[in-house]
Amino acid sequence: MTLAGPVEGGRQSAVLRWPVMAVRFVVIGGGPAGTHAAITGARLGAEVTVVERDVFGGAANLWDCIPSKAMIATGAVMSVADRAPGMGLQALDSRLDLPALAGRIKDIETGLSGSVSQLLESQGVRLIRGEATMKGPHEIVVESASGLEELTAEAVLVSTGSRPRIPDFAEPLLGGGRVLTTRDAYPPPEMPEHLVVIGSGVTGVEFVHMFRSLGSAVSLIVSRQHVLPQKDAEVAAALEEDFLRRGVNLLKGGRAAGIDVTDQGVTVRCEDGRAVSGSHALLAVGSIPNSEGLGLDSAGVEVDAGGYVPVNQHCQTNVGHIYAAGDLSGRLPLASVAAMQGRKVAEHVMGLHTRKHRHLDYDKAASAIFTEPEIADVGLAEAEAFAIGRKIRVTKVPFAANARALIDGDARGFVKVVSDPYTGVVLGGSIVGRGAAELISVLAVAVTNNLKVTDIVESLLVHPALAEALADAAE
Fold it and tell me: Does the pTM of the predicted model rise above 0.85?
């Protein structure tokens, strides 16, 4: 694509002119990054082919993220039933129907994957289900059910995602039904009587909440001194308090070293000699990128020691026309970030970066943890500001002072806003409470666009609404 046009007042006006030959753009991996790159690229005039070996829509998205949130939603309904007496209702009976839950999750996965495929095809994107291997900087060989096919491309995006990391001590124990990976648990073949969760990061705490809501006893092995070590300490403390209130057993400072399996259950051993027994163990210790077997070395693409593909601000690898996005890029492992990376890659491929173009700022990405209460944050954290010596203003309002939270019968949590004390610009924020994943969007818009706390305070928000707590905290 070129920018050209008549000269007006000494300046050349911008008129988009597409090249006579469409750019051949091959996308390897049909997750959030790949699908958004393909759709954007096709709309901009590229000739796009997407190669996916598992499921269009992304394995990490449709086999991890979506099923977990579906199970959490079911648990939330059960939680509402438990709160019925406090809402002026008689006690409700909400027992889990595991086969029905499994069927619901399968229907959601199938529906979403089908919708993604239809959307891609409606934009003229060619879809190939198969394994792609790069044979050179511009050459890709695809092995599918119909045989081998060679593709050539002016631009390539590799967005093959990641898979659950398995500790060496657990590898021989998989497949027996007692030791589960995250992908074995959406839902598991049987509900654990007592689940021992190994890993206290985002995935681990979501599993704790999920299975506790569905009726399992849960123990959580916390390798640090508090859960969510990368999050605001006050946020982590609020979640721990809720876990303890719900009867979750926390083993703080325990690092798993081994698992013993019997016909009756499992015993997880920690490095410090402590142990905890349960019916099942679940591994939530991170993920590893799917970078092997892609022929990246044949294409001259560098891969780091962890298997990630380093990229610049345009998601370009060391080979300029080859891009990497999503989990493979080693940046924030969020579907929202991957989708935005995909759009930015397509724009770069088609030359839109040559005009006014906003780079993706990973420091301003909003994220959420779907526990109960929900947790969400964006931008600069309080502890991070103190660590770098930056002066900030921190204001906090509890949901206990919010009318809507009291009406809904759940006033747990708070809103915290971080701003510049001199300019009032919103730098970040954290929310713990019902609807946090939705409410954080207001702060994300403020952080991304350098809005001030007064911009939030002077907005005429709905009453009664949880969002009022944002204005109260900003004020």
Answer: yes
